[in-house]
C-alpha cells in the first residue's frame, strides 16, 4: 500500500493529463538512458524539452533509484520556465516522499523560491515563504543555500513590512559569515533595511562596509547614492555631493541619472549655484529619457536666474565665440 501511494504521489507531479505512450522498440527506453538524456537537455538550457523528458521518466520509472533526483530536476526546470505553481507541487511532494535524499536541501530551496515568486503575485504569503526559507537554513545550516535563504527571508519580511525581522535575518547571516557569496549583498540589504527603518547611522555603517570591503561590487554606486541621501538628511551637503559624484561617475552605475540630479540639489543647497546648474544640465543631456530629466531642466531654468550662473553662462558663450 505504501509503495502504491508513493507511485501515485510521484505521478501527481506530472503537469500533463494521462501517460505518454512508450514505443516497445525505443532504444532509449531504459531508466539510465532516459535520465542522462533529460539531464543533457536541462544542462543545455532546453528547459521545456527537459521538463517533458523528466515527466516521461517519472511516468515510466516511478520506483527507480533516481526518482528523487529526477523530481528535483523537474522542479528546477519548472522554475526556469517560470511555472512556479507546478514547481512548488513537485518540490513539496519530493521533499515529503524522500526526506533522506541528498537533494533535500535543493528541493527545499526550490520550494521556498517557488513560493516566494508566487507570493509576488498574491498566490502565496510572504510569511509562509519566510518559513520555507527557515526550513532551508535548518536543513543545511552551513551551506551557501542557508546564506541565500536568510537573504530571501529578509526580503519576505520587508515585503510584509516587518523591518525588525528583516534586520534580524540579515544580521544572522552577517554574524555567521564574514565572506563568501551573498555576504556583500547582505551588507547592502542591511543598509536599505536600516535606512527604511530610520536608523541612518547603522545604514551608513552598512553601506561603508560594502564600499571598503568590496570595492568592485556591482552595488557600489547604489551604496554611494544612499550614503549621499543620508548625508542630505543630516544637511552635510558637501559630503553628500562627494557620494553623488562617485555614484554618477561609476561606469557600472545603474543610478547615474538619480545621482546627478541629487548632486545638483545638494550643490544648490550648499550655495554652489554654478556647479548645481552644471550637474542638472549634465543630467538632462546624458539621460533625456530619465524621469528626472524634466525636473533637471526646470532646475536649470530656475538657477539661470541667479547672477552667478548668468555670468558663468555668458562667459562660456563668449569664449565659444572667440574660439
CATH fold descriptor of the domain at 218-317: Serine Threonine Protein Phosphatase 5, Tetratricopeptide repeat
Order of helices and strands: HHHHHHHHHHHHHHHHH
- The secondary-structure class comes to mainly alpha
Q: Low-confidence spans: pLDDT under 50, at least 5 residues?
A: 1-8, 16-28
* Structure annotation, total helices: 17
Shape: elongated
What would you say the CATH architecture of the domain at 218-317 is? Alpha Horseshoe
Please state roughly what percent of the residues sit in beta strands, choosing from under 5%, 5-15%, 15-25%, 25-35%, 35-45% or over 45%.
under 5%
Structural Rg: 27 Å
Number of extended strands:
0
CATH class designation of the domain at 218-317: Mainly Alpha
Termini separation comes to: 93 Å
User: CATH H level of the domain at 218-317: which superfamily?
Assistant: Tetratricopeptide repeat domain
Largest sheet: none
Mean pLDDT score = 89
Plain-language structure description:
The chain has a domain at 218-317: Serine Threonine Protein Phosphatase 5, Tetratricopeptide repeat (Alpha Horseshoe). Helices cover 73% and strands 0% of the residues. It contains 17 helices and no strands. It has 323 residues and is mainly α. It has helices spanning 2-11, 31-43, 47-60, 67-80, 84-97, 104-120, 126-139, 144-159, 163-176, 183-196, 200-213, 220-233, 237-249, 256-269, 273-286, 293-303, 307-322.
